[in-house]
Amino acid sequence: YARDGSPTPALLEEALTTLARGRYTTVFGSGMAAIAAALAVAAAGKRVLAAPDLYGRTYHLMQSWLPGTGAEVRFANAQDHEGIAALLRDWQPHLLVLETLSNPLVKISDLPWLIAQAQAVGCKTLVDNTFASPYLCRPAELGAAFTVESLTKYINGHGDVTGGAVTCLEAGDHKALVEYRTAFGAVLDPQAAWLTLRGLRTLGLRLRQQCANAAALAAFLTVHPAVAHVYYPGLSHHPGHALAGQMFGGRGFGGMLAFDLAEATRARAWQVMDRLHVAVAAPTLGDIATLVSHPRTASHRNLTPAQAAAIGIGEGAIRVSAGIEHSDDLLADFRQALA
User: Fold this and answer.
1) What is the pLDDT of residue 317?
2) How many percent of the chain have pLDDT more than 70?
3) Dihedral, 157, 161, 164, 167 alpha carbons, nearest 10
4) Mean pLDDT, residues 196-200
5) What is the pLDDT of residue 301?
6) Which of 46, 146, 238, 283 keeps 20 to 30 A from 37, CA to CA?
7) What are the structural domains, with CATH classification, of the chain?
């Protein structure tokens, strides 16, 4: 019975385990199904410490659903090492939740340091690695107990699949994840698994071009008069630039970036996105096409204005997922849209 297991998803799980350098992988029907399963297994009824710079739906899940399981959730800036160390030491959480590169402002978490600090107090770490993908980073190699990937994004890479995966290190956690998937029906269908295996073959090829295009676009936007600020770890002034270079092994700085418009209004953001012809407005990422979105009306629409402001997401922010187009075409498209 397919809800209990199927050959093609099993082949995908084997491939993802090898790619992530983990021990066990469980695939799910979506990225949110994957992270919900990981939280149900590792965080229900427990103390959970999380970075606030999370995908909006994840943040909402941790605020609205997780406390209902008896869990106590606290948020702390992952870049504040002193503060994180104090909370880990004094509060003794059971789970630390992070994103390798935050959505949407691409802040980088120092995973080697954070995971080591958590392990020192017996705390497991869950890392959403979707923005980085296994091409740039493999949190399981660093000791992350759970690595979550939205297969919808870079791993599939063609915008025709919805899926998710959790790679873990312990047999008990894997067993619990499989039982959760079977009980709640959060399965990945065989056709989606087959398409994801197809996409996986070109992950490295796609990411190399996406990283190059993101870097070119970030450099262009940095000096454009209509842009107030650019968020991209490949820029030398980005606070996580050196760390990203070390963690990603010189393979690039990712295909994701964001920027604030000088005219920081929702209307101006949508005007710019509507003028684009090569790039497409879409609330997803990791596609071979360049995609743009407005976080305050898409990925982070559930945040209150105060919550969004606290993590730096303004009405004039635009998130970009660089595709594999020729960089000249991409820069020309943004040049005319910003005029």
Assistant:
1) 97
2) 100
3) -50
4) 98
5) 87
6) 283
7) 2-200 (3.40.640.10), 203-338 (3.90.1150.10)
